[in-house]
Structure formats: structure tokens, C-alpha cells
């Protein structure tokens, strides 16, 4: 798997998927939309600087989030990332910088 970080964006490629480049802002927007739907929150209710715990993200939903992010980004992610980077802002920054593990 190829991975590089160019100007705050994550670029990922695997043998079976095309390269995907996502900025921190794109990752944040995707996570906000995904979590608002999954946690049945009103649009705009979720804040990127608030802890996942504040919104009731349990371990099952955290695993689902990582699985969906893997599909969207086209890269394998560690399932414990929401615990190591406990806000959307922190997790998006980590992923945009090319991080996939803890």
C-alpha cells in the first residue's frame, strides 16, 4: 500500500482501490455527516471539537465509524483511533497527516 502526505492531505492507494486524497476539512465534513446520521443528531448539532463521548459514541459505533472511514478513504485503519484521537478535529487532523494507526 502506498501512502504519502502532501500539504496536509492524505493520499492512499491499495492494489484494489484507486488513490484517494482527502484534506482535514473533507474528512471532518464526512465524519460529521456520518455521525449525525448514525447517532440521530440534528444537522449542525455535532461539533468537531467536542469529544465523541459527549455524543454517545459507543464501542460498536466507533468500530462502524472506522469501517466506513476505511471504505471511504481506501485504507485500513486501527479500530481504536477514536479513543486515541477523541474528537472529530483530532482524528481528521491525524488522518489528513497520513496517520492510519495510533
Description:
This protein has 102 residues and is an alpha+beta fold. The protein has a single domain, classed as ACP-like (Non-ribosomal Peptide Synthetase Peptidyl Carrier Protein, Chain A, Orthogonal Bundle). Helix content is 42%, strand content 18%. It has helices at residues 24-38, 59-73, 81-84, 88-96; strands at residues 2-6, 9-14, 17-23. Strands 1-2-3 form a three-stranded antiparallel beta sheet. Strand 2 and strand 3 form a beta hairpin. The radius of gyration is 13 Å and the shape is globular. The model is unreliable at 1-19 (pLDDT under 50).
Produce the secondary structure layout.
Blueprint: E1 2-6, E2 9-14, E3 17-23, H1 24-38, H2 59-73, H3 81-84, H4 88-96
Antiparallel strand pairs: 1-2, 2-3
Helix pairs in contact: 1-4
In N-to-C order, the SSE pattern is EEEHHHH
Which band does the percent of strand residues land in?
15-25%
**Mean pLDDT value:** 82
Overall radius of gyration = 13 Å
Number of strands: 3
Structural class: alpha+beta
Approximate helicity band? 40-55%
- The CATH topology, please? Non-ribosomal Peptide Synthetase Peptidyl Carrier Protein, Chain A
| Shape summary | globular
**Which class in CATH terms?**
Mainly Alpha
CATH superfamily: ACP-like
Sheet with the most strands, sense and barrel status: 3 strands, antiparallel
- Total number of helices: 4
Q: Span from first to last CA?
A: 18 Å
Order of strands across the main sheet: 1-2-3
CATH architecture: Orthogonal Bundle
Count the domains. 1
Uncertain regions spanning at least 5 consecutive residues: 1-19
